[in-house]
Amino acid sequence: SSWFEFLKAEKLDAKQFKEWCRAEMGAI
Q1: How many structural domains are present in the chain?
Q2: Element spanning 16, H or E
Q3: Cα 10–Cα 11–Cα 16 angle in degrees, nearest 5
Q4: What is the pLDDT of residues 1-28, one digit of tens each?
């Protein structure tokens, strides 16, 4: 699924999204 679908599913706010992005970048 796309990150947008993930966002909608998780109902993340901007702060959480930034933290998630950092986690994703760190995992790559």
Answers
A1: 1
A2: helix 14-27
A3: 85
A4: 677 787 777 776 778 888 888 998 887 6
CA distance 16 to 14: 6
* Torsion over CA: 17, 18, 24, 28 (sign): positive
Measured CA to CA, the distance from residue 13 to residue 27 in angstroms comes to 21
Structural domain span for residue 20? 1-28
Tokens of 18: 């930034």
Residues 6 or more apart whose CB falls under 8 angstroms from that of 12 comprise 20
* pTM for this entry: 0.43
